[in-house]
Each structure stands twice: as structure tokens, then as C-alpha cells.
Design goal:
alpha/beta; 389 residues; Nucleotidyltransferase, domain 5; seven-stranded mixed β-sheet; ATP binding; 14 helices; single chain
């Protein structure tokens, strides 16, 4: 089947759209990436998303209207991808859309265990004349899970090794890791959010330099660590929580960065970027040292990085410096893949499994009570004869 996977993450750097040919199902699934594009979100839309994520400024009309505008933005990304790949829109069998998270609040109380992704899938289905699978997280949460991370199921299918323990570290707005023990089964896979990825760095770059991100980590490389801030960040309570755990913009978003800027207003801008970059690197390595290496040991380990943070060379050097000797560090691109396309491809695979009627969460990663079929299916509204009264 030919699919488009859509991902718009907490970093708000754009809509990732991957065109994928998928064959097989379950553990026999193969996925071939045909083409990929990131369609930037315009500044006005970004600001609306940030407002929607802010509990003090968000409104019901804003969220309602934003749901529609993002639906059209996702539809536009699909059309842009098809044009770039020179494939007809009619050849797309389905679209799998993660949507845009505006609030994610996992809780042990089932009445408060909640999440919200917007970007109306009906608009995609109608405009592209195809089936759409969307809203993947809520079923896992209904089953008692945290609704995140969801990609471990696909990572087991695509990256499981008989010779190496593999840690698949995504560094988007938030960092998350999937642990694939060597020669393991699906039930051996576990995963959790490690903490902030690019989110704090990006917001600081925007506030201090009017730039959307730190290209290749060049700004961080010019700065020095601020010891007091470094220690304060390392004392953040999220780092002490045991997996499974997940987080998002509600914890490490704009409000967090504004408090940081107010308290450290006299510090050099480059030093703030360097210290925030160090925090991301430390939170990743600290998660490995606290929770992963005690479980699997420290030998035969490959760390495979993806997401926008995989292009930040200063961040990668910092991560490597914190890791024990013998732990190898590489990116999806080093393996011949795409660091940017990985999550969009993952949602295409998840959508394919949903349409096959297969459970596609990893309960050991999310904390769900059982395996469930994720997502809601929006049928192709053009595939039937309209009923005439």
C-alpha cells in the first residue's frame, strides 16, 4: 500500500510528510521511503499553536478554529509531497496523521489521563479523496497507558538486532528513547521520554537571536556553561521520575523558558544556549545511566539518533562526552536512512496496522494494560455513491 505519514511535533519546525510504500503486516512489515518533505508552519500559525498550548491564554474558539486551519495545513503538506515526488494524489491509499499536540497530561487517575491532538482529519480525507487514520494516542490512554511514546512498535519491526542492544533516541521538541534489547521480543521493548529535546533551545534562540533554532549547534559552541543554571536544570523533578513517563510543552514550553530568562537575565545569550544544550545532552545520558544501563548492561550498545537534534553537532558532542566508553553513537543518516523522516514513516506504519485491525501499541513502553488498535479511521468520503432523497 502507498501511504503518507504526517508528523507535526512539539518543536513546531514544520509538518513532516513521508511518502511510503508498505508491504506485509505485523512483524513482516517492510517500509520503503519514496520521498519526504518538511513544510514549514507560517509564523502566525506557530503563534496560534503556542497560544492554544498556554492554559492562561488558550480559548475554546481558538482551539476549534485552529483544528480546521491545521487540517488544511496537513492537506497542503500531502499535496506538496505528491507534487515533489511526481506521484498522482489518486495513488495514495491512505494518510496517517499524528496531528498537532496542544496538551498532553498523563495521569494515574483514568478521569484525568488525557491528551489532545488537533488538525481535523476529515479535511484531509475530503481534500485528498482517501482514507485517513488519526488520533492515535487516546486508545492507549483509554487502556491505562500514557499515550506516548507510540513509535516503539514500529522501531521493533524496523530496527531489532540479534547482536546489539539498540537505543533509538529521537530528539524533537521533546527527547524520547526506545530500548530494543538484543535478540528481544516485542514484549521486551520499553521506551520513555528523556526530557527536553530542542524545545528549550529553540525558544531561547527565538527570544534571544530571532532565529528558529541553533543551526548545527553553532551558537552553543560559542558559549560557556553557566554552573548555577546547569545545576538548577539538572534538579528538575522530571529527571527523577521512573519510566514509563512522558512530557511536553506544558512542562518545558514557553512559560518554562520565560522563567529561565527572567532569573538569568544578566547572563550572555550564547552561554544560555550552551547551558540549555548541555541540559538536553545530560537528560539523555542521565536517563541511560539511571534507568537503561542497569537493566541491559553497558556493552554491545548502539545509540541511533533521529529528529532535528541529530543535526546539532554541539549537542551530539555533549551527549557523547556523557556516555560511557564503548557506547557507539550514530544517526539515522549514518545508517542510510533519514533522521527527519523517521517519525512520519513510523505513523504511516502505525496507520497501516490500524487498517489491518492489528494492535499496534507497545504496552511495555506506554504502560497500557494491554495491546490495542490505535487511531480513528476516517473513510474516504468519495468512495461511495451519495444517497439521494
Amino acid at each position: 500500500m502507498r501511504a503518507i505519514g504526517l508528523m507535526s511535533g512539539t518543536s513546531l519546525d514544520g509538518i513532516d510528510a513521508a511518502l511510503v510504500d508498505i508491504n506485509g503486516s505485523g512483524l513482516t512489515t517492510t517500509a520503503h521511503l519514496i520521498d519526504f518533505v518538511t513544510v514549514p508552519l507560517d509564523d502566525a500559525l506557530k503563534e496560534q499553536i503556542k497560544l492554544a498550548c498556554d492554559p492562561k491564554q488558550s480559548t475554546v474558539p481558538l482551539i476549534c478554529q485552529l483544528n480546521v486551519r491545521l487540517g488544511h495545513a496537513f492537506l497542503g503538506a500531502c499535496r506538496t509531497l505528491c507534487e515533489k515526488a511526481a506521484v498522482p494524489v489518486a495513488s495514495i491509499d491512505f494518510v496517517a496523521s499524528h496531528g498537532q499536540t496542544i496538551w498532553h497530561a498523563p495521569a494515574t487517575d483514568p478521569l484525568n489521563n488525557s491528551t489532545l491532538q488537533i488538525g481535523e482529519p476529515s479535511i484531509i480525507a475530503y481534500g485528498l479523496k482517501t482514507t485517513v487514520v488519526a488520533d492515535f494516542r487516546v486508545m492507549d490512554m483509554a487502556a491505562g497507558g500514557q499515550g506516548a511514546p507510540l513509535v516503539p512498535f514500529t522501531e521493533y519491526i524496523l530496527y531489532q538486532s540479534q547482536q546489539k542492544h539498540r537505543l533509538l533516541q529521537n530528539i524533537g521538541g521533546i527527547g524520547n528513547v526506545t530500548i530494543l534489547p538484543k535478540a528481544g521480543e516485542l514484549q521486551d521493548v520499553w521506551a520513555f521520554d528523556t526530557g527536553p529535546g530542542n524545545m528549550i533551545i529553540d525558544q531561547l534562540m527565538l527570544d534571544l537571536f530571532k532565529q528558529p533554532y541553533d543551526f548545527s549547534g553553532q551558537t552553543a559552541a560559542k558559549g560557556k556553561i553557566i554552573p548555577k543554571l546547569q545545576q538548577a536544570l539538572r534538579n528538575h523533578p522530571f529527571l527523577t521520575l521512573s519510566p514509563p513517563k512522558s512530557t511536553g510543552r506544558e512542562v518545558f514550553g514557553k512559560a518554562f523558558t520565560q522563567r529561565l530568562l527572567a532569573e538569568y537575565a544578566t547572563e550572555k545569550a550564547e552561554d544560555l544556549i550552551a547551558t540549555a544544550t548541555d541540559f538536553t545532552a545530560f537528560s539523555i545520558a542521565d536517563s541511560y545511566l539511571k534507568f537503561i544501563l542497569p537493566a541491559i548492561g553497558s556493552s554491545d550498545i548502539e545509540v541511533i539518533l533521529s529528529g532535528g537534534g541529530a543535526h546539532n553537532h554541539t549537542l551530539l558532542r555533549m551527549i557523547a562526552a556523557y556516555l560511557p566508553d564503548g557506547v557507539t553513537l550514530q544517526t539515522q543518516d549514518d545508517l542510510g536512512g533519514s533522521s527527519d523522516a523517521k517519525e512520519a514513516v513510523a505513523f504511516a506504519i502505525l496507520g497501516h496496522e490500524t487498517l489491518q485491525g492489528h494492535s499496534n501499541n507497545a504496552p511495555t513502553a506506554t504502560g497500557a494494560d494491554r495491546g490495542v488498535i490505535l487511531g480513528k479511521i476516517i473513510p474516504n468520503p468519495w468512495s461511495h455513491t451519495a444517497y439521494q432523497i
